[in-house]
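call fold(seq) -> tokens
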Amino acid sequence: MYIAPAILSALLVIASSPGAQDPFPIRADVNLVQLHPRVTDAQGHPVLGLPKDAFQLFIDDVQQPITVFQRDDAPVTAGIVVDNSASMSPKRQEVVSAALAFARASNPLDEMFVVHFSDHTRLGLPEGTSFTGSISALENAIGAFDLGGTTAFYDALLMAQSQFHSAANSRKVLLTITDGGDNSSHATLAEALEAVRKAGIVVYPIGMFDEKDSDQNPKVLSTIAQQTGGEAFLLSEVTDMNKVCVKIAKEIREEYTLGFPGAEDGKYHRIRLTVKDPQHSRLEVHTRDGYKASKSSAVGP
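ret:
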């Protein structure tokens, strides 16, 4: 079957990387599914340097082999999705500062983009620039608010998902910042969630909700995070956003990369990943709970 250039490139990098475990042959029919788990101990501290055999992978409760394993701080493609609705006006400076703190704490090889949304969505980088690693370019892109209007959060997720199509890195992350529930998207939550899950995007939503806002729906952010393998942060103080963004960047850099051959039946499959290590009494693994398989297609001679 066909493998997108970005995925094939990632396979070659992982297979040839000095940090890769058990290099594997690249075959044109490999339908690779990647997971990016983070492991913590009983106190919630990250556990790094675990070997491949510490992990066990189960798909629909059937154990499967792990064919790709990497422990390095691999670069990611990250999108920063920013709410521009009218209520964000007094939070603007804190949002810009926090998003830049996220960029500065990330891997210097990461590529990033920005999506702004209110009742419409738009990309923040200049036309013709899909991604950047420049802090100054990101500062301009993040700071280019067009304040006013309602909240089309689900539409923004779909725009961000489409931007990943040309990503150079196989690891895909979204940092989203909003202070209201969706009230004007054309897309539904189910459609947006299906799109980001199918693309293997890990979402880290930050929410700052006013209790008087009838549209607020913090459970949506928790659902998106849980089903994509990310983590939701619901803040009572906007001043907490900076340290949260640094925490998210740090957690991304502490992730492992695991890969396995996926099904080709177009169905959703449950993922369960366990980890054990004799040096730790209890370990917890954080990753997405399933994946949507691609459909096989016949390839002509």
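The CA atoms of residues 94 and 238 lie 7 Å apart.
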